[in-house]
Amino acid sequence: MKIAAIDIGTNAIKSKIFSTTPTSIEFLESKRTPMRLGTDVFKEGFLSEKKLRSLVNVLNKYKKYFEENEIELYEIVATSAFRDTSNSEDARRIVENNIEHPIRIISGLEEAKLIRFHPKAQASFEKMYVDVGGGSTEFYMHTKEKDYIKSFQLGAVRNYLKIDNKEEWQRMFDWLAEHQKEMRLVGIGGNIRSFFKIGKMKSMTVDVFKKQAKELSRLNKADKKSIYGLNDDRVDVIDSAIEIYSKVISHLSISKVHATKWGVSDSTAVKLFHELYSEKIQIKNN
User: Fold this and answer.
1) What's the pLDDT score for residue 284?
2) What percentage of residues in the chain have a pLDDT greater than 90?
3) Which range of residues forms the domain containing residue 140?
Protein backbone atom coordinates (compact mmCIF):
# COMPACT_ATOMS: atom_id res chain seq x y z
CA MET A 1 0.00 0.00 0.00
CA LYS A 2 1.29 3.47 -0.86
CA ILE A 3 1.06 6.25 1.70
CA ALA A 4 2.23 9.87 1.71
CA ALA A 5 2.62 12.96 3.87
CA ILE A 6 2.54 16.64 2.99
CA ASP A 7 4.30 19.28 5.06
CA ILE A 8 2.97 22.82 4.59
CA GLY A 9 6.10 24.66 5.66
CA THR A 10 7.03 28.30 5.96
CA ASN A 11 9.24 28.32 2.86
CA ALA A 12 7.86 25.45 0.76
CA ILE A 13 5.31 22.65 0.43
CA LYS A 14 6.96 19.23 0.67
CA SER A 15 5.68 15.71 0.19
CA LYS A 16 7.20 12.25 0.64
CA ILE A 17 5.68 9.08 -0.82
CA PHE A 18 6.32 5.59 0.52
CA SER A 19 5.47 1.98 -0.31
CA THR A 20 4.47 -0.06 2.73
CA THR A 21 3.76 -3.59 3.87
CA PRO A 22 2.79 -4.63 7.42
CA THR A 23 6.51 -5.05 8.18
CA SER A 24 8.29 -2.46 6.02
CA ILE A 25 8.22 1.07 4.69
CA GLU A 26 10.24 2.15 1.64
CA PHE A 27 10.77 5.67 0.30
CA LEU A 28 9.65 6.09 -3.32
CA GLU A 29 9.78 9.76 -4.25
CA SER A 30 9.42 13.32 -3.06
CA LYS A 31 7.82 16.50 -4.36
CA ARG A 32 8.59 20.09 -3.40
CA THR A 33 6.91 23.34 -4.36
CA PRO A 34 8.46 26.69 -3.31
CA MET A 35 5.84 28.85 -1.60
CA ARG A 36 6.92 31.31 1.06
CA LEU A 37 3.92 31.53 3.36
CA GLY A 38 6.20 33.13 5.92
CA THR A 39 6.42 36.39 3.99
CA ASP A 40 2.70 37.04 4.51
CA VAL A 41 2.71 35.87 8.11
CA PHE A 42 5.87 37.57 9.36
CA LYS A 43 5.34 40.85 7.47
CA GLU A 44 1.56 41.29 7.48
CA GLY A 45 0.57 39.03 10.36
CA PHE A 46 -1.86 36.88 8.39
CA LEU A 47 -2.20 34.64 5.32
CA SER A 48 -3.80 36.53 2.44
CA GLU A 49 -6.62 35.17 0.28
CA LYS A 50 -4.28 35.21 -2.71
CA LYS A 51 -1.71 33.08 -0.91
CA LEU A 52 -4.38 30.66 0.28
CA ARG A 53 -5.68 30.26 -3.28
CA SER A 54 -2.16 29.44 -4.43
CA LEU A 55 -1.82 26.91 -1.62
CA VAL A 56 -5.12 25.28 -2.56
CA ASN A 57 -3.98 24.96 -6.19
CA VAL A 58 -0.73 23.29 -5.16
CA LEU A 59 -2.41 20.88 -2.75
CA ASN A 60 -5.04 19.92 -5.33
CA LYS A 61 -2.23 19.11 -7.78
CA TYR A 62 -0.61 16.89 -5.13
CA LYS A 63 -3.97 15.28 -4.45
CA LYS A 64 -4.52 14.57 -8.16
CA TYR A 65 -1.03 13.06 -8.39
CA PHE A 66 -1.78 10.84 -5.41
CA GLU A 67 -5.01 9.63 -7.03
CA GLU A 68 -3.28 8.92 -10.35
CA ASN A 69 -0.57 6.92 -8.59
CA GLU A 70 -2.89 4.92 -6.31
CA ILE A 71 -1.74 6.54 -3.08
CA GLU A 72 -4.60 5.57 -0.85
CA LEU A 73 -3.70 7.19 2.45
CA TYR A 74 -1.98 10.48 3.25
CA GLU A 75 -1.81 13.11 5.95
CA ILE A 76 -1.29 16.87 5.65
CA VAL A 77 0.40 18.81 8.44
CA ALA A 78 1.15 22.53 8.72
CA THR A 79 3.90 24.05 10.82
CA SER A 80 5.20 27.48 11.84
CA ALA A 81 3.48 29.77 9.30
CA PHE A 82 0.05 28.28 10.07
CA ARG A 83 0.78 28.29 13.80
CA ASP A 84 1.67 31.96 13.84
CA THR A 85 -0.78 33.53 11.42
CA SER A 86 -3.52 35.54 13.10
CA ASN A 87 -6.16 33.88 10.90
CA SER A 88 -4.91 30.35 11.56
CA GLU A 89 -8.26 28.60 12.01
CA ASP A 90 -9.99 30.49 9.19
CA ALA A 91 -7.09 29.76 6.85
CA ARG A 92 -7.10 26.08 7.76
CA ARG A 93 -10.84 25.81 7.24
CA ILE A 94 -10.71 27.58 3.85
CA VAL A 95 -7.97 25.28 2.56
CA GLU A 96 -9.55 22.13 3.99
CA ASN A 97 -12.92 22.84 2.40
CA ASN A 98 -11.33 23.50 -0.99
CA ILE A 99 -9.16 20.38 -1.05
CA GLU A 100 -11.65 18.19 0.84
CA HIS A 101 -8.99 16.79 3.13
CA PRO A 102 -8.15 17.62 6.76
CA ILE A 103 -5.05 19.61 7.70
CA ARG A 104 -3.42 19.19 11.10
CA ILE A 105 -1.61 22.25 12.46
CA ILE A 106 1.10 20.87 14.73
CA SER A 107 2.76 22.72 17.59
CA GLY A 108 6.48 23.36 17.77
CA LEU A 109 6.90 20.70 20.44
CA GLU A 110 4.98 18.15 18.38
CA GLU A 111 7.20 19.01 15.43
CA ALA A 112 10.25 18.39 17.63
CA LYS A 113 8.82 15.13 18.97
CA LEU A 114 8.23 13.84 15.42
CA ILE A 115 12.01 13.71 14.94
CA ARG A 116 12.03 10.55 17.06
CA PHE A 117 10.74 8.67 14.00
CA HIS A 118 14.10 9.20 12.29
CA PRO A 119 15.52 5.65 11.99
CA LYS A 120 18.67 6.57 13.94
CA ALA A 121 17.22 9.06 16.41
CA GLN A 122 17.02 6.56 19.27
CA ALA A 123 20.02 4.44 18.33
CA SER A 124 22.58 6.66 20.05
CA PHE A 125 22.91 8.92 23.09
CA GLU A 126 25.50 11.23 21.53
CA LYS A 127 23.42 13.15 18.98
CA MET A 128 21.47 16.40 19.00
CA TYR A 129 18.99 16.66 16.12
CA VAL A 130 18.37 20.26 15.07
CA ASP A 131 15.66 21.11 12.53
CA VAL A 132 15.97 24.70 11.31
CA GLY A 133 12.83 25.48 9.35
CA GLY A 134 11.57 28.70 7.84
CA GLY A 135 9.83 29.93 10.96
CA SER A 136 11.07 27.86 13.88
CA THR A 137 13.90 25.64 15.12
CA GLU A 138 13.24 22.30 16.80
CA PHE A 139 15.54 20.12 18.91
CA TYR A 140 15.44 16.43 19.74
CA MET A 141 17.89 14.51 21.92
CA HIS A 142 17.59 10.92 23.12
CA THR A 143 19.27 10.02 26.42
CA LYS A 144 19.15 7.07 28.82
CA GLU A 145 16.94 9.07 31.17
CA LYS A 146 14.49 10.73 28.78
CA ASP A 147 13.96 12.36 25.40
CA TYR A 148 14.46 16.13 25.30
CA ILE A 149 12.42 18.21 22.88
CA LYS A 150 12.27 21.97 22.41
CA SER A 151 11.06 24.54 19.90
CA PHE A 152 12.08 28.17 19.42
CA GLN A 153 10.70 31.00 17.30
CA LEU A 154 13.84 31.28 15.21
CA GLY A 155 13.96 30.25 11.56
CA ALA A 156 15.55 30.94 8.18
CA VAL A 157 12.71 33.06 6.76
CA ARG A 158 11.79 34.67 10.09
CA ASN A 159 15.40 35.70 10.73
CA TYR A 160 15.99 36.81 7.13
CA LEU A 161 13.03 39.17 7.49
CA LYS A 162 14.50 40.31 10.85
CA ILE A 163 11.49 39.20 12.88
CA ASP A 164 13.66 37.29 15.37
CA ASN A 165 14.21 38.83 18.79
CA LYS A 166 16.98 38.82 21.39
CA GLU A 167 14.78 37.27 24.07
CA GLU A 168 14.14 34.17 21.96
CA TRP A 169 17.85 33.80 21.18
CA GLN A 170 18.62 34.01 24.88
CA ARG A 171 15.90 31.49 25.71
CA MET A 172 17.54 29.07 23.29
CA PHE A 173 21.03 29.72 24.69
CA ASP A 174 19.79 29.11 28.24
CA TRP A 175 18.27 25.78 27.20
CA LEU A 176 21.42 24.72 25.34
CA ALA A 177 23.47 25.49 28.45
CA GLU A 178 21.65 22.61 30.15
CA HIS A 179 23.02 20.10 27.60
CA GLN A 180 26.78 20.39 27.62
CA LYS A 181 28.01 16.83 27.11
CA GLU A 182 30.06 16.16 23.98
CA MET A 183 27.86 15.11 21.06
CA ARG A 184 27.37 15.25 17.31
CA LEU A 185 24.88 17.61 15.72
CA VAL A 186 22.56 16.26 13.01
CA GLY A 187 21.02 19.05 10.97
CA ILE A 188 17.57 18.68 9.41
CA GLY A 189 16.20 20.85 6.62
CA GLY A 190 16.87 21.90 3.06
CA ASN A 191 19.28 24.68 3.97
CA ILE A 192 21.79 22.52 5.79
CA ARG A 193 21.51 19.83 3.11
CA SER A 194 22.36 22.46 0.50
CA PHE A 195 25.20 23.66 2.73
CA PHE A 196 26.71 20.17 2.84
CA LYS A 197 26.21 19.76 -0.90
CA ILE A 198 28.25 22.93 -1.43
CA GLY A 199 31.08 21.46 0.65
CA LYS A 200 30.73 18.03 -1.00
CA MET A 201 30.99 16.43 2.44
CA LYS A 202 28.93 14.01 4.54
CA SER A 203 30.24 15.42 7.82
CA MET A 204 32.23 18.44 8.96
CA THR A 205 34.30 19.40 11.94
CA VAL A 206 33.16 22.54 13.71
CA ASP A 207 36.10 24.51 12.30
CA VAL A 208 35.32 23.47 8.71
CA PHE A 209 31.63 24.26 9.23
CA LYS A 210 32.38 27.76 10.49
CA LYS A 211 34.91 28.40 7.73
CA GLN A 212 32.49 27.40 4.98
CA ALA A 213 29.68 29.42 6.59
CA LYS A 214 31.90 32.51 6.60
CA GLU A 215 32.92 32.02 2.96
CA LEU A 216 29.32 31.50 1.85
CA SER A 217 28.09 34.62 3.68
CA ARG A 218 30.57 36.76 1.73
CA LEU A 219 28.93 35.90 -1.60
CA ASN A 220 26.01 37.87 -2.98
CA LYS A 221 22.84 36.16 -4.17
CA ALA A 222 23.90 36.10 -7.83
CA ASP A 223 27.17 34.37 -6.99
CA LYS A 224 25.45 31.85 -4.72
CA LYS A 225 23.17 30.95 -7.63
CA SER A 226 25.82 30.82 -10.34
CA ILE A 227 28.58 29.11 -8.35
CA TYR A 228 26.53 26.66 -6.29
CA GLY A 229 23.26 26.44 -8.20
CA LEU A 230 21.10 27.45 -5.25
CA ASN A 231 17.41 27.98 -6.01
CA ASP A 232 15.72 31.38 -5.67
CA ASP A 233 13.87 30.31 -2.51
CA ARG A 234 17.11 29.06 -0.96
CA VAL A 235 19.68 31.65 -1.96
CA ASP A 236 18.33 34.48 0.21
CA VAL A 237 17.69 32.54 3.43
CA ILE A 238 20.51 29.99 3.62
CA ASP A 239 22.83 32.34 5.52
CA SER A 240 20.13 32.97 8.14
CA ALA A 241 19.64 29.22 8.59
CA ILE A 242 23.36 28.50 8.86
CA GLU A 243 23.72 31.34 11.37
CA ILE A 244 21.27 29.52 13.65
CA TYR A 245 23.26 26.30 13.34
CA SER A 246 26.51 28.19 13.98
CA LYS A 247 25.17 29.73 17.18
CA VAL A 248 23.82 26.37 18.35
CA ILE A 249 27.22 24.81 17.71
CA SER A 250 29.00 27.59 19.62
CA HIS A 251 26.80 26.93 22.67
CA LEU A 252 27.25 23.14 22.71
CA SER A 253 30.18 20.72 22.91
CA ILE A 254 29.89 19.56 19.29
CA SER A 255 32.48 17.19 17.84
CA LYS A 256 31.12 16.88 14.30
CA VAL A 257 28.21 18.17 12.23
CA HIS A 258 26.11 15.99 9.91
CA ALA A 259 23.04 16.55 7.74
CA THR A 260 20.11 14.26 7.00
CA LYS A 261 17.49 14.16 4.25
CA TRP A 262 14.86 13.47 6.91
CA GLY A 263 12.11 15.99 7.54
CA VAL A 264 8.62 16.56 8.91
CA SER A 265 6.98 14.79 5.97
CA ASP A 266 9.15 11.69 6.55
CA SER A 267 8.28 11.53 10.24
CA THR A 268 4.59 12.13 9.54
CA ALA A 269 4.54 9.29 6.99
CA VAL A 270 6.32 6.91 9.35
CA LYS A 271 3.89 7.81 12.13
CA LEU A 272 1.03 7.13 9.71
CA PHE A 273 2.64 3.78 8.83
CA HIS A 274 2.70 2.75 12.50
CA GLU A 275 -0.93 3.74 12.94
CA LEU A 276 -1.95 1.90 9.77
CA TYR A 277 -0.46 -1.44 10.74
CA SER A 278 -0.75 -1.35 14.53
CA GLU A 279 -2.93 -3.97 16.15
CA LYS A 280 -6.37 -2.80 17.15
CA ILE A 281 -6.65 -2.02 20.82
CA GLN A 282 -9.72 -3.21 22.66
CA ILE A 283 -10.97 -0.87 25.37
CA LYS A 284 -12.87 -2.86 27.97
CA ASN A 285 -15.17 -1.82 30.80
CA ASN A 286 -15.91 1.52 29.23
Assistant:
1) 56
2) 94
3) 119-261
